[in-house]
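Supplementary Data S3. Sequence and structure tokens for construct A.
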Amino acid sequence: MIKKKVTIVNDAGLHARPAAALVKLASKFESDFYIHLYGYKVNGKSILGVMTLAAEKGAELELELDGPDEEEATEAITELIDDGFGEVYEDGDE
């Protein structure tokens, strides 16, 4: 089992599009994936679960992965979050 803390860096937080991207990526892996935030634990492969977190910019998530490809999954998911889910904003434009 791997537990890792990551911070939401994109301006809009974990809204619908990033949540969908996260679930889609996580679902490619066999490992179980849970996200802990504010005392809640949700299935990271469930769009409804991820959306209920409503994680804003700066929120610190704890990722929990357990399974045969947990290291690869942790690396891929961390990279997606650290890259701000691919969202690019120009100065002053959100």
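Construct B, processed identically:
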Amino acid sequence: MTNRLPVVLGALLTLGIGLPVSAQENPIVVYNAQHETLAQEWATAFTEETGIPVIIRQGSDLEVANQILQEGTNSPADVFLTENSPGMVLVDKAGLFEPLPQDILDQVPAQFRPQNGNWTGIAARSTVFAYNAEKLSETDLPKTMAALAEPEWKGRWAASPSGADFQAIVAAYLVLEGEVSTLDWLKGMQENAVIVRGNRAALATANNGEVDGALIYHYYWFGDQAGTKESSGNTKLHYFGNQDPGAFVSISGGGVLKSSQHKDEALSFLHFITSAKGQDVLRDGASFEYAVGVDHASNPALPPLTELGAPDIDPTQLDTVRAAELMTEAGLL
């Protein structure tokens, strides 16, 4: 992967957020692995609030994290945002994050950020099983994520194992159940699951009745429901709950790089994202990701985060490198 990274980053989309070129003389540069539309909403609101311009360079979690490792102390990035926390952990372990001030940390509950305070949660998403309501009743649903590896589920569910989203789910399973059980589950998945590329494709496969259900993150379903419903109209969501690995809540992270040449502005951006105004973007926008700010409400369409029965996982313990190795051993990658 490392040898391909310069090509990947060279193709990243660089965007000035609604400002003339003359106003972009001293912008902050955000390496963004979050959804582009959400990052743009944050950047636009931040620029309107502060006058500080933002340039977004778009990529995927681990590709961008590895690019930052390659650039090291010479990285032109000021801020790094991810969809899932493992990319943050890679950069943090390399010692490339600026420790965050307490006023930023205080805006996010302790369970949504690492103890060392080098980065913080900015949003969250829940694992769910989207099922075709014409093919399954509630009594037919898998009680646990582990059940999907049982023979009776062969050919009946879809997933997209190649992306960072699913690998974070596997990393959570690894933390909760250990290597032996995780590898056994992955081998069962290799036997049972219909492999597709992308969570939206997995959802559509369930919606079309090609499979009974799909293991995805919740916001893909809510986003489609808010639009045409073409990929979700025949489906409902099953939340595993009970601290099951299938109830894993993944944290999106944000951090400021030590190499930043605009550190005060970069910290101001992260402060804004985790503040009430930044979290309002999650509540009122179309991302359907969970707000994680202290006492801040998420989109009212979502079931409360506190009621999902998610397992308690330290985000710094999610090892997607080992998860990917086990997935390769099981024949999924």
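The beta strands are 14-16, 28-32, 54-58, 79-81, 120-132, 157-159, 193-195, 213-217, 235-238, 249-256. The radius of gyration is 20 Å.
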